[in-house]
């Protein structure tokens, strides 16, 4: 098992953001976490990656208990992630942002940036880029960072349709090479076409999970999330 | 850094114009220019027959232009109500602010039970709704929307463009940047495609069928 989440709880004041949340992620699969706005998807990512400590429950990653690990320790254990709103170092160049993930040469950097259709120079300050381009740089950085689990929070948000298609191909290729990928996503075409498994989160807890086809037909999912 | 090169763009009263294009094409910069959030080297911006190119931002707001910036940008440590009141900062009449608040909440009823909650307790999608509601507080005649669909769940997304259309039906012209091209263009009167800082194409919905669009923007088998 790549990742095992057991009875995870997190509340903010009187509100449970994540409640009694349990699921497994199998190695070499692409799993999408979907659910209404406010379901607790991003909080869940933050609990797994150590941005927030859980109140209860455990996170196991490759047979290691990483519950409550600091973010850098989670990263060193082999989890690479992106954020819902791009987090790049705005006062660093695109090159330096990427070198923080992995010490590779310019040719390698250009290759990964070409994949995400990044169209500017490596010397550009990340803060000068448009929002969408900052996201592309962030995704490239997450891909470059040595990992066995990749966690992407809404990778297609703010990204143009052409790059979305390219992202699909990148993720499928990574899976073939043995990567395990978990993503939070609202683009249903994207989710349904690349996921092995879909987990539906609602009010902090797993509403249902299954193959894209199973989830799409589930009346509870239609009610809570997709709309009729 | 030069971002825009000789962009010409008209938005007519009461219409919905949509600006689409690849990441980094300069879409947000067009909106920022109209709101005076970036330096304009050349060219002019005319609003209702008046040259506003050098007009400070707060005076543009008073003329009826509002913006909903990209990536929410709500005040996390203020309540939802306070965020909305900030949207009507230039309205000194408290009664009028209350009236606007009630009107705006009709478009975004999900914010009603949250009025006294701090904005950081809202989910990403709810914050997006708050940002849009705040943009309406000044009762704009031209509303600039920078990717309103960002981070919204499908059920709300379907509804979002209906709401934008509803806002428009009350007489507010809209200039919207969107990556969700199909849904945005479905309610648009006029579509502009920006590529590398220039208007590559513009026209009505038929623009989306253009071969060039597929190449520069949609990619592969469209969207």
SSE class of chain B: alpha/beta
Enter the CATH topology name of the largest domain in chain A.
Rossmann fold
Q: What is the CATH superfamily of the largest domain in chain B?
A: P-loop containing nucleotide triphosphate hydrolases
The termini of chain B sit apart by: 31 Å
Query: For the largest interface in this structure, which chains are involved and how many residues does each contribute?
Result: A-B, 42 and 40 residues
Oligomer class: heterodimer
Roughly what percent helix of chain B?
A: 25-40%
According to DSSP, the number of beta strands of chain B is 8
Taking the sheet with the most strands of chain A, its summary is:
6 strands, mixed
Description:
The complex is a heterodimer of chains A (228) and B (223). In chain A, 48% of the residues are buried. Chain A starts with a strand and ends with a helix. Chain A is globular. Chain A contains nine helices and ten strands. Chain A is an alpha/beta fold. Chain B starts with 15 loop residues before the first strand and ends in a 5-residue tail after the last helix. The mean pLDDT of chain B is 90. In chain B, strands 4-5-6-1-7-8 form a six-stranded mixed beta sheet, sandwiched between helices. Chain B has 223 residues and is an alpha/beta fold. Chain B is globular. Chain B has two domains: 1-64 and 142-223, Rossmann fold (3-Layer(aba) Sandwich); 74-139, no CATH class. At the A-B interface, helix 5, helix 6 and helix 9 of A face helix 1, helix 5, helix 6 and helix 8 of B.
